Amino acid sequence: EQTKGYVVIATMSxxxxxxxxxxxxxxxxxxxxxxxxxxxLSGYKFKCLYDxxxxxxxxxxxxxxxxxxxxxxxxxxxxxxxxxxxxxVAFIDTQIYIHSISxxxxxxxxxxxxxxxxxxxxxxxxxxxxxxxxxxEPMEVYRTAFVVDGTNLGFMVSDSNCNLVxxxxxxxxxxxxxxxxxxxxxxxxIGAHVNTFIRTGIRIHDGSILGTTSASSLxxxxxxxxxTWFGTLDGAIGSFLPLAxxxx
Length: 248
What we know:
Blueprint: E1 7-13, E2 22-32, E3 44-53, E4 58-64, E5 67-72, E6 75-82, E7 85-93, E8 98-104, E9 107-112, E10 117-123, E11 128-134, E12 141-149, E13 152-159, E14 163-168, E15 183-189, E16 194-201, E17 226-232, E18 237-240
Antiparallel strand pairs: 1-2, 2-3, 4-5, 5-6, 6-7, 8-9, 9-10, 10-11, 12-13, 13-14, 14-15, 16-17, 17-18
């Protein structure tokens, strides 16, 4: 199946208490044009293919399996871009207000402004979004991210109390109530509010991420782990790297 990449932008406009907030989804194509001889970097330009107002504020947007996934108020929609128009594929009602979405393969981790996190799965053939598990404890979430530790997958959350919390999905655990509840594995207070995450693969030969410690002494080349970088509201940048218990 042939695919093409686009630049997708989500907006929100708040006009005060008397008017309901609204947002837009805008889709741009990056076109190659004849550059200006005096400006060698002007060989590309944006062409707007879609620009329509939605029924509510578009608080988050991402891509999943070639589709667009967006959070509009308390609903999550999956769209397909066909003939320069968005066609609804699937949707699901959530709790209060969704403001963070993280996607890896067909899994969706979303954060509610007061109701912590939930894990969804998207079935492209059946065109459905389904809840796998969630955290039932209240939490004011700032941002979410996936933690990749080889074949294990964790879920990192930053909250309003300056904590970084890691959850896992363990349906075989008694505490998970048959897989309905995410298990809280660890947490740390870093003294600052984290408002963004980015996940990258680690270069085994590069020890700069761990300071003076050689990364090759901590990770084996067969261990496929990712580094989760985070940024705080007071201007700090940090990283999180899962390690085996023996090496720790």
